[in-house]
Design a protein that fits this description.
Four copies of one chain form a homotetramer. The first copy, chain A, is built from 14 helices and nine strands. Chain A is α/β, with parallel strands linked by helices and about 290 residues long. Chain A has two domains: about 5-160, NAD(P)-binding Rossmann-like Domain (Rossmann fold, 3-Layer(aba) Sandwich); about 170-290, N-(1-d-carboxylethyl)-l-norvaline Dehydrogenase, domain 2 (Orthogonal Bundle), CATH 1.10.1040. In chain A, strand 8 (about 130-135), helix 8 (about 140-155) and strand 9 form a beta-alpha-beta unit. Chain A is elongated. The interface between B and D is medium-sized, with 17 and 17 residues.
Amino acid sequence: MKIGFIGLGKMGSAMARNLLRAGHPLTVYNRTRGKAEALSREGARLADSPAKASRDSEAVFTMLSDDAAVAEVVFGENGITSGLQNGAAHISASTISVAFARRLEAGHRDRGQVFVSAPVFGRPEAAENKKLIVLAAGPTEAVERCRPLLDAIGRQTFLAGSEPWQANAMKLCGNFMIASMLETFSEAFAALRKARVDHHLFLEMMNELFGSPVYRNYGATVADEKFEPAGFALRLGLKDVRQVLELAQDFSTPMPFASVLRDHLLSGMAYGQENLDWSSIARVVAKNAGLT
Amino acid sequence: MKIGFIGLGKMGSAMARNLLRAGHPLTVYNRTRGKAEALSREGARLADSPAKASRDSEAVFTMLSDDAAVAEVVFGENGITSGLQNGAAHISASTISVAFARRLEAGHRDRGQVFVSAPVFGRPEAAENKKLIVLAAGPTEAVERCRPLLDAIGRQTFLAGSEPWQANAMKLCGNFMIASMLETFSEAFAALRKARVDHHLFLEMMNELFGSPVYRNYGATVADEKFEPAGFALRLGLKDVRQVLELAQDFSTPMPFASVLRDHLLSGMAYGQENLDWSSIARVVAKNAGLT
Amino acid sequence: MKIGFIGLGKMGSAMARNLLRAGHPLTVYNRTRGKAEALSREGARLADSPAKASRDSEAVFTMLSDDAAVAEVVFGENGITSGLQNGAAHISASTISVAFARRLEAGHRDRGQVFVSAPVFGRPEAAENKKLIVLAAGPTEAVERCRPLLDAIGRQTFLAGSEPWQANAMKLCGNFMIASMLETFSEAFAALRKARVDHHLFLEMMNELFGSPVYRNYGATVADEKFEPAGFALRLGLKDVRQVLELAQDFSTPMPFASVLRDHLLSGMAYGQENLDWSSIARVVAKNAGLT
Amino acid sequence: MKIGFIGLGKMGSAMARNLLRAGHPLTVYNRTRGKAEALSREGARLADSPAKASRDSEAVFTMLSDDAAVAEVVFGENGITSGLQNGAAHISASTISVAFARRLEAGHRDRGQVFVSAPVFGRPEAAENKKLIVLAAGPTEAVERCRPLLDAIGRQTFLAGSEPWQANAMKLCGNFMIASMLETFSEAFAALRKARVDHHLFLEMMNELFGSPVYRNYGATVADEKFEPAGFALRLGLKDVRQVLELAQDFSTPMPFASVLRDHLLSGMAYGQENLDWSSIARVVAKNAGLT
């Protein structure tokens, strides 16, 4: 299956590499050309616009940082919509808003193109090791057709529904689950540190109690305050929490935990932590308790 | 090692049974005699007061619902302090406040007795199956002496420090971690349900993402809204969250998540959910979103 | 000064009437014609589009419910921009978002028109009695020119700055101040009612303490739970709190009180209170405490 | 009417002075003798214990900082209870907890003494100028008997009920109302300052809108960040917010605004602001937004 891939950051490069390894002829595009060239040495063809990366592809992936970046690449000049053939699919792996997922679905439908939303869980290491969790939603036939591609980038593919935005709703709520865990650790650690109780020992207990690799990894990051390099930047975490709140707002659902997260991530922005890992929400919580 | 055990609710009975199985001669006391008699048939001796359950014991356990219940059994008429021999230990497995743990430590020390705090994580099933996680804190020599008893009731014993209250601080923060997870699930499920996205499917994804038995079990309870019978009553959950907030307050640490939990658990009390499982905080969250 | 007026709800009709009384020739437009006809009997001319209401006017007012309504009237077919003469002013008295105020400013500037933002404080009764507080911002010369019009509708005109959006930022923050007062009353009343302490007596004390007509009026509304007819609908209150949060978000400022307000107003929406007065946030707070 | 007065801080001294001016023979006691001597020069007799200040008095006032201080003076060695005659009244003007007010009522009743709770609103300047608002609760006959004393210290006396704690519940809720106003100003000012909108001008508008001297005075304090000298110390403000939360907790009432206040005041403690005015909650809010 001939495919295109647009957006070659840490996540995108790793995903594209796994698609290559699975034997799919791949055309790639990235705004800054350097990253594309690395993949070219591994067998990918280079395109100089999103349209060209889409032209001969049965499916074109995007893995970009936010709604605006995806909008530019899809609807902008020489964008995907102007290149993608009738019936071919755009697979968006980015974490985008529910509202924008609906707009993408309509935009492609109007042009006889297909839209599949397939956001993923996992950090760059997981992407490299084909350990991502993939949430796919879209027209059943299209999702089935793209299934081998999705299976090539992750350890498990969940079918989230027949409307693309449903996958985005789930992805956003999943990120909310992780962000809540970060805040929870942060608050517990702050209280224990101020009480002069060993918070690393507490983390060990929590690892035994929860038995979760996510707790283990993020818990260590928070306990050791290792917020660089960022696996997922705080400013992107804020974007996702805002989009969860927008989703909830559209359905008249209060989410007070999400509101606390938003407030703390905004403080993180105000403190200049936008490019630190989002687990640096712990630094905000610690500051609020007078810890430095 | 001759031991006493006071407080034979679901948790206490299971723990006492494991101590018997481990070969320790056991004297038990319970306010309502019926539960003690069940253990008597398995080899325990019955005492008719906490003092008598303590008299010949090298160590006496308490497993009771709150500070007040422990205070009555320890300092009340025919209480533990009046029965326990010089140098013998009181092992408190209850989830009590940090302030009260300090008071217990001082009260026993004044009488030449030893206090070990050893709160546990786990629901009644875990207690039966010797799967509890035990957090023990107290004078090193005493904790070492009691170690075989602690190992007899759980799957792992953590040494939390040389001051008993440290174990209680960790236990309270651990319960806060669980309560936060419950609220987080509740908010995500509420938003997804209102958006008509399948929240059971979302739970499956979270199980794959977090890989945690605690998430799996509590997540199912919340998703299915099975709040009876209560593994841990909401009113006890509120007590613990209040005690976390008191701990944090004593050390000038804001814990906004804990404040949200407190508010929602108070609503749960106001709605008559005091004896439902504390995961019924989800019902409060759902009501706030207009779900019934 | 010949003027136009678009948007003849309770607020707009009262304001337009005061402009007529001040002797300004007035042309009015309203989507549903009935309300316009009432003013026609008092001397206003009727226009059948926003463009026509703007054509011969030196200034045209809008008083509409939200950004979308203003956008339609300004930029839509036969909108204000297509009718307003070079150099003439659009005076927006609506409570709109800061982002949209910037868009309006740019949109008019591009067409050689002038934009003055002049949101107002006050309920319909205040509008009728020329008791509004007017916050005006825009190019100094334009604001000065419009000053007699602004003075004709309120008891005091504040000059909020030379950029129109500044008035909107202040107006939104002012509404946040009022909404916070409503929530504060709601929480205090709920606690006192549950403690069986007379909350009406408490209100009397607060009136003596604060000495504020706003406290007196809204306090009575909340204490008596008289949420109909709505002076200001809950759904509009939610809109404003959301816009405050957006403003704060753009400048990385946490506003936890605003987040609580948003959550409670969302519950109000979920409970079907969208058309009750926004002081019915008190009903949400009371429900959370189990009061009915 | 012969009276005693215990607790001669800024508030107490001013109140005692007004009682002297009203012609009541006064015996005073203060832990540090200096302040008592100032009053002695104005005609008060000095006592060297609370018991002696109570011995010949028909009523003895206390104006102290918290529950613990009142407990010491009432129930401690040579305390009020050991001096006060049968039928004589203890009038507590301190802001104490509801639970402790109940304990005081019972403690005095057991000894044939009468307890009247009469907390006050107003800062030291108001106390000097006899401008306090007095909330009195207790047995009707006793309150009537003490009425001339209460009227001598304030501008208005409210009868809050026949059970002393009711006055304390109202006083605590009143302080919550003020604290909420402080937080609200703080958040609005922070957002406006970051948006570079003139927050002093905003305050002027709010003064016109609310027309409240309390808003005017506290608003200026917050806008100008003049937190010293403290009219009411932050640590006492935290104490009151905690007591509001305890009251609400006893009646299963969530108060999310009070929870936010508590968290911000705890940050204030952690930042070393305990002796600044409680309006310095604004400094916490500003810090959270990255303002310094």
